[in-house]
Amino acid sequence: MRRLRVGSVPYVNAAPLTRWLETDEASSFVEVVYAPPSVLARQLQARELEVALVSSVELARRDDVRPVADLCIGSRDAVLSVRLFCKTPLRQVRTVALDTSSLTSVALTQILLARAYGVEAKYRHAAPDLDAMLRQADAALLIGDLGMTAAHPEVREVMDLGSAWRAYTGLPFVWALWLANAETPDQPLAELLQRAYQWGKAHLDAIIDAESQRTGIPRAVCQRYLKDVMVYELDESLRAGLGRFLQEYATLREHTTLLEC
């Protein structure tokens, strides 16, 4: 039987969902491919992957994908790893460099600045290099492990997009979820992905140790991030947050030109 090709982001937040898929027990069924969210979306659409832990905005951009296994990468408030670094006070931002790795966070940045803060900004794509980004723009969006650890002496204000979304809507946020192409059967995918998550929960302390060592992020930060910030099981509040995001995305897209990766 051909192994299922599963795509995942290479960040700390995905580790509890994917590490079992790398074990000898799973390797005969699954091959894991790691890439940034924007690349995963293209690979899924090209049918190079059966399923991917991909940006939630893909539910609005494509009508031929569906969620699998009721799992996600979510947060109920501050997310720590998706942040907008500003050289000026937030409401004075006029130019924004957007991390080319991102899809959902690129859309969310534009939604929040326009709808929550009344900021009219010009957007451009940029590689995830904070120093270079801030040389060309008032603010820079970074995601993932770099979004959690980056710092710059010129930064005057930092917006955590999870906190800003919570303040704007009162809802949690779904950053990514397992999405499969329409023709991909639910089984054995859903069972394998749920099994991987249950293994990740049972081995979370070991995963925290390994991710801290792999990334150089202090263990205490990894522990807080994976135990207190990240939410992996889709519940009604997260579904409500996802629905609100897709609605906000559609509204803004209808009335303005969104910059997308």
Give your account of this protein's structure.
This protein folds into two domains: 4-74 and 173-246, 3-Layer(aba) Sandwich (D-Maltodextrin-Binding Protein, domain 2); 83-171, 3-Layer(aba) Sandwich (D-Maltodextrin-Binding Protein, domain 2). With 261 residues, it is of the alpha/beta class. The strands form two sheets. A six-stranded mixed sheet has the order 2-1-3-10-4-11, with helices on both faces. The mean pLDDT is 94. Helices cover 43% and strands 23% of the residues.
Question: What's this, in brief?
Answer:
This protein has 261 residues and is of the alpha/beta class.
Specify the oligomeric state.
single chain
Mean pLDDT: 94
Counted by DSSP, the helix tally is 12
Structural class: alpha/beta
- Order of SSEs, N→C? EHHEHEHEEEHEHEHEHEHHHEH
**Helix proportion range:** 40-55%
End-to-end span in angstroms?
35 Å
List the uncertain runs. none
Q: How would you name the CATH homologous superfamily of the largest domain?
A: Periplasmic binding protein-like II
Quick one: overall form? globular
Number of domains: 2
Q: In the CATH hierarchy, what is the class of the largest domain? A: Alpha Beta
What's the CATH architecture of the largest domain? 3-Layer(aba) Sandwich
Provide the β-strand percentage band.
Answer: 15-25%
From the alpha-carbon coordinates, what is the Rg to the nearest angstrom?
18 Å
The CATH topology assignment of the largest domain is: D-Maltodextrin-Binding Protein, domain 2
Please provide the count of β strands: 11
User: Within the largest sheet, what's the order of strands?
Assistant: 2-1-3-10-4-11
Largest sheet: 6 strands, mixed
